[in-house]
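This protein record is not my work; I was only asked to verify it. The record follows directly below this note.
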Amino acid sequence: MTDGAPRGGRAVFRHHDFCAFVTCRFLWTLGLQVLNVAIAWLVYVVTSDPFALGLIGLCAFIPTVPLSLVTGPAADRYDRRWIIVISCMVMVLCGGLMLALIMGGSLAPGKMLPIYLTVVLLGSARAFANPAGQALLTNLVPDEEYQSAVAWNNSTNQIASVGGPALGGFLVAIDSSVPFAFATGCFLLATIAGFVIRARPPRAEKIRATWSVIVAGYKFIWTKPVILGAITLDLIAVLLGGATALLPIFAKDIFQTDAWGLGVLRSMTSVGSIAAALVLANYPLRTHVGRTMFTCVIIYGLCTIGFGLSSHIVPAAIFLIVLGAADMVSVVIRQSLIQMETPNEMRGRVIAVHTILTGTSNQLGEFESGTLAYFIGAVPTVIFGGVSAIVAALVWMRLFPDLRNREKI
């Protein structure tokens, strides 16, 4: 490294392709966050139905189940950059379709099907983009800089996750069509940024898409207790402990705010995530990574309970900030373990499984939360989720001692 080169955690930014990738990922994340807030708010305002909110998460989750069998092999077989570019182009189409639906003035309680179908298409694009993007990241920086690259990538994503919801709430207040136009523009710019990436992953031997190849990711994870424990713990904690789908209810009915309140609440977890990611980017974890991850999941559950018991938006926001910080530490540990223990030729398939089991557990968790809230109410649902996350962490500590005792990445 030359004397003028950046040092420490910032060293990853000397890689042109890493910068282009981070920009692309930032833009599509920002667009998705704006869309998430706009869709959730409009659906709840029109329907006043928690179950309708849950259906949004279900529609985002549905395509990832069958597509997980092909997105991983695709990321290992084809140029990962082009998978990202094509996925962003599909996101542009989805944003345009939603904009047309909103401007058509056809939103009504019984006319949500076009919105749900567009969410399914958007989920399909994300199903391809996520494993390809995570697998490509490993080829953009040296191995010794990978943990910092993950943290910086996550921190920029979280910046989009902070600005996106707040911006989405502000844009909805201006006009219902504005956030959809803005998100479409973000997806278009993300497509352009994807073209700028020059790096190519190492050439792997072309593999046929046989059944054994398709399920290889699942088999690999099953033979690695550390990876299996990390992925399944996150699956259970997020599936039962997530409260994202119910934020429109808390903003509108409990805290008595408007769309801006929803934007603030959606942003707070990312505020904590950014703070944690920036610390980890400059001071990577060196020891006790297993116990640290379990501790963070327990904190996640406690803060979820605290949020559910809050009667004012200020303490609720504080709980969400701490929750986001704890979740980010867990995410960085989990992703680093998976990437470092998986050979390059298997990463696409393993990450695809990781996406289906954890990345999409957010959407499935939203459906679970919306459905449960329909029967028992929003507050009891959130408290139940927090307790479930804590119990899951305690049980997994006994089931996966190798993960609990893991000292280093």
Notes: The chain is about 80% helix and 0% strand. The domain at 10-202+210-404 is CATH 1.20.1250.20 (Growth Hormone; Chain: A;). The radius of gyration is 20 Å. Residues 1-8, 202-207 have pLDDT under 50 and may be disordered.
